[in-house]
């Protein structure tokens, strides 16, 4: 009898007030759709399954009575677990057509479909069941309550497994995408806001949570302050508040629990997640939940939180890197890169009347050498404090390099006299005081200003001008300065190209005995003809060659070329006594300079006595120990030494007396004075000095018979100049030698 009652499913039920599904705390109900044109079937099915739970979740029924009604309602639904579908309704194929609609148009691939029919003659064939993706088929006569419950449980279990696998796949994919989407450019607050968004998307809940981070400890305080650093939805007004100031006790206690115990907390209506990084700044996210989380969601959240812990470590690392990249560690000031960024920012905003000033501490390197780097660091810190305190927040202060500070601010605040006044009082250094001055370079920002790097470059040009003219002075950058620098840079580039392309060449100017007219020597002079045929004066490109270091290679080439030409003249028995080659201070300081001279002589076969190196006074005074060593090596090699442009420098006479030089060269400026009212007094003094020091004297710049006669009468032995012979190419020089043979 009990078995018969159990097998009776379709019984009358007039009680329309039966609940569709038992209320269940926590998990949402399974949605079961009943599609049948028979009202009794709907009522009987609902009655048979009332108060039923499957996998600890209640059932929720959805009823449609025709194919048309089903097609209209289903597109607005989601998460339908099982459809109990009548095969025959308006037509004998209505059920199968709905299957096609559900699978192909709605794309409900997870939903389980159980076909039911009260007319076995209309049962679909096996191939139809397979082709239409039908999960089960029952006749209504065999579908007792027990069998219905069994079929429904199997279908829901299958649906749950499919959804779990799919949710895991989608969740893991979303975790990977969300981790990749985090950027660290805008700091912890942007990162925190992104965490709220990603958690909400992962769990399918609205972003109504807030995120908190551990704050810095106050000086001397034992307890740490926890603050809200990102919030959303109804909690937006809690931004930047301390957790202890949150009025809602549930949120306050949950956050404190997680941040202090460093573990997640799951409650019925909310969850609070913990993100564990290696640093000492834990994060916690509080999220409101409209429903309890499934096990799969909890598992995904654990993976997400672990992954976000790595992201948090990366954020801390990026913050540290940015701090080192954009902040000076000694003075805790923005550095050069950050200063350039700030200039770019104000240029983009078009702020008026702003200037950039660079302050260079005079003689700072020497002070470091004498007093030590620790003292220098303390001085820089003292200067930084005074600049920051006196100029205030309107001026952006940065450390550009070792002893150079950068200022960006209003023109009225950064007046040169105001800045120099800041250095009028000594700076306190521990228990002492130190007085320093600064050189200043300035540039005004205007509409035509380019990027921050170029503005800083212009200020540096002005600063160099100040340091080269008078320390403690200031220079305001002008367009003319920029034009000169750019022209110098262009000329330097062209000089390198000209050297590589062999556009540089030598000319030779003859030297003669003023008493006999005998051809006694040559001076090798480098020349540069540009691509357009114009001659570039040596006074323009030689300083550039020295500045860029090209003078070393250039000088070695001049040395070899002159030696080989002199050796050629000797073979032709047309050579004078010596070939003069100019040597710069940069060349002279090279460790291999003497070896370069020796190799040029050996390769060319020229006797050392035929080579004379012309060295300016500035070289002799650059460093006495180094000069004396080099000079001794050269004299041992057998070459002669001439002091070029004598009288234009500041040589010590006692020092000059010790030098093993052979000749003094009177600068052309003193020869020109012969034509002036004052007369050649300096030239006479140099000639007399040469006699006293037992040095031969040769004059440059002889341009007239008057010059020749006067210098010869004064006792000058040799001379060179346009009156005697212009600088000439090899072929022209051969003709000159032939005419003076």
From the spread of the alpha carbons, the general shape counts as elongated
Counted beta strands? 29
Mean of residue pLDDT values: 82
**Runs with pLDDT <50, length 5+?**
1-25, 217-221
The helix tally amounts to 26
Any idea what the radius of gyration is? 47 Å
Helix fraction, binned, reads 40-55%
For the largest beta-sheet, the strand count, sense and barrel status come to: 8 strands, mixed, barrel
Strand order of the largest sheet: 21-22-24-25-26-27-28-29
In words, what does this structure look like?
The chain is of the alpha/beta class and 741 residues long. The strands form 6 sheets. Strands 21-22-24-25-26-27-28-29 form an 8-stranded mixed β-barrel, surrounded by 6 helices. A 6-stranded mixed beta sheet has the order 2-3-1-4-5-6, with helices on both faces. β5, α5 and β6 form a beta-alpha-beta unit. α10 (336-349) crosses α14 (452-469), α11 (364-371) packs across α12 and α19 (593-604) runs parallel beside α21. The model is unreliable at 1-25 and 217-221 (pLDDT under 50).
Task: Give a nutshell description of this structure.
By secondary structure, the protein is an alpha/beta fold. The protein is built from 26 helices and 29 strands.
Write the layout of secondary structure elements.
Blueprint (H helix, E strand, L loop, with lengths): L1 H5 L23 E6 L3 H10 L4 E2 L2 E8 L2 H7 L6 E7 L7 H12 L6 E6 L8 H6 L4 E4 L5 H37 L5 H17 L6 E5 L11 E6 L17 H13 L3 E2 L3 E6 L7 E6 L6 H32 E2 L4 E2 L1 H14 L4 E8 L2 H8 L1 H19 L4 E6 L2 E7 L5 H6 L5 E3 L2 E3 L3 E7 L7 H18 L4 E3 L2 H22 L3 E10 L5 E11 L5 E2 L1 H11 L1 H22 L6 E6 L1 H4 L4 H12 L6 E6 H4 L3 H14 L2 E7 L6 H6 L4 E4 L1 H5 L8 H12 L3 E4 L5 H10 L3 E2 L10 H10 L2
Parallel strand pairs: 1-3, 1-4, 4-5, 5-6, 19-20, 22-24, 24-25, 25-26, 26-27, 27-28, 28-29
Antiparallel strand pairs: 2-3, 7-8, 7-11, 9-10, 10-11, 12-13, 14-16, 14-19, 15-16, 17-18, 21-22, 21-29, 22-23
Helix pairs in contact: 6-9, 7-9, 10-14, 11-12, 15-16, 16-17, 17-19, 19-21
């Amino acid at each position: 009898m009990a078995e018969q009652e159990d097998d009776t499913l379709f019984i009358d039920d007039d009680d329309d007030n039966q609940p569709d599904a038992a209320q269940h705390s926590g998990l949402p109900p399974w949605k079961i759709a009943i599609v049948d044109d028979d009202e009794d079937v709907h009522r009987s099915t609902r009655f048979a399954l009332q108060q039923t739970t499957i996998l600890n979740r209640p059932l929720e029924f959805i009823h449609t009575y025709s194919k048309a009604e089903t097609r209209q309602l289903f597109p607005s639904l989601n998460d339908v677990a099982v459809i109990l579908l009548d095969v025959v309704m308006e037509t004998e194929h209505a059920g199968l057509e709905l299957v096609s609609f559900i699978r192909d148009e709605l794309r409900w691939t997870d939903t389980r479909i159980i076909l039911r029919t009260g007319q076995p003659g209309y049962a679909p064939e096996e191939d139809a069941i397979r082709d239409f993706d039908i999960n089960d088929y029952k006749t209504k006569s065999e579908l007792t309550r027990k069998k219905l419950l069994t079929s429904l449980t199997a279908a829901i279990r299958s649906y749950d497994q499919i959804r779990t696998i799919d949710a895991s796949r989608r969740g893991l994919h979303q975790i990977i995408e969300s981790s990749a989407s985090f950027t660290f450019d805008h700091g912890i607050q942007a990162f925190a806001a992104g965490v709220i968004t990603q958690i909400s998307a992962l769990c399918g809940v609205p972003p109504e949570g807030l995120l908190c981070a551990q704050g810095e400890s106050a000086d001397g305080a034992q307890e740490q302050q926890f603050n809200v650093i990102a919030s959303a939805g109804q909690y937006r007004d809690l931004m930047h508040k301390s957790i202890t100031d949150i009025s809602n006790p549930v949120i306050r206690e949950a956050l404190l629990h997680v941040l202090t115990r460093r573990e997640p907390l799951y409650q019925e209506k909310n969850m609070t997640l913990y993100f564990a990084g290696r640093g000492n700044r834990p994060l916690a996210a509080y999220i409101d939940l409209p429903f309890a989380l499934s096990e799969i969601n909890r598992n995904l959240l654990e993976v997400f939180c672990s992954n976000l812990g790595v992201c948090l470590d990366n954020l801390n690392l990026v913050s540290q890197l940015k701090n080192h990249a954009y902040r000076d560690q000694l003075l805790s000031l923005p550095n050069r890169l950050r200063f350039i960024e700030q200039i770019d920012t104000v240029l983009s905003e078009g702020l008026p009347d702003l200037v950039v000033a660079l302050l260079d501490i005079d003689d700072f390197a020497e002070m470091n050498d004498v007093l030590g780097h620790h003292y220098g660091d303390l001085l820089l810190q003292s200067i930084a404090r005074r600049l920051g305190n006196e100029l205030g927040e309107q001026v952006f202060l940065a450390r550009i390099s070792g002893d150079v500070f950068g200022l960006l601010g209003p023109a009225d605040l950064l007046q040169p006299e105001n800045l120099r006044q800041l250095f009028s009082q000594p700076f306190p250094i521990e228990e002492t005081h130190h007085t320093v001055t600064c050189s200043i370079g300035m540039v005004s920002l205007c509409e035509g200003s380019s990027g921050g790097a170029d503005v800083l470059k212009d200020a540096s040009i002005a600063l160099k001008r100040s340091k080269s003219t008078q320390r403690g002075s200031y220079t305001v950058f002008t367009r003319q300065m920029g034009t000169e620098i750019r022209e110098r840079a262009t000329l330097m580039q062209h000089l390198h190209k000209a050297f590589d392309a062999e556009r540089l060449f030598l000319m030779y100017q003859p030297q003669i005995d003023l008493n006999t007219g005998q051809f006694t020597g040559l001076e090798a002079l480098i020349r540069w003809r540009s691509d357009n045929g114009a001659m570039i004066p040596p006074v323009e490109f030689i300083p550039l060659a020295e500045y860029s270091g090209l003078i070393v290679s250039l000088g070695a080439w001049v040395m070899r070329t002159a030696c080989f030409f002199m050796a050629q003249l000797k073979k032709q028995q047309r050579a004078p006594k010596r070939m003069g080659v100019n040597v710069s201070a940069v060349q002279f300081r090279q460790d291999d300079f003497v070896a370069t001279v020796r190799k040029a002589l050996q390769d060319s076969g020229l006797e050392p006595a035929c080579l004379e190196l012309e060295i300016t006074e500035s070289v002799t005074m650059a460093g006495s120990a180094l000069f004396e060593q080099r000079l001794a090596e050269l004299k041992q090699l057998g070459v002669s030494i001439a002091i070029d442009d004598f009288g234009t420098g500041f040589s010590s006479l006692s020092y000059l007396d010790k030098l093993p030089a052979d000749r003094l060269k009177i600068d052309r400026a003193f020869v020109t004075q012969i034509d002036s009212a004052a007369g050649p007094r300096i030239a006479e003094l140099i000639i007399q000095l040469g006699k006293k020091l037992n040095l031969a004297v040769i004059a440059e710049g002889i341009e007239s018979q008057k010059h020749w006669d006067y210098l010869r009468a004064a006792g000058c032995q040799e001379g060179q100049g346009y009156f005697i012979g212009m600088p000439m190419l090899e072929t022209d020089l051969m003709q000159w030698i032939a005419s003076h043979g």
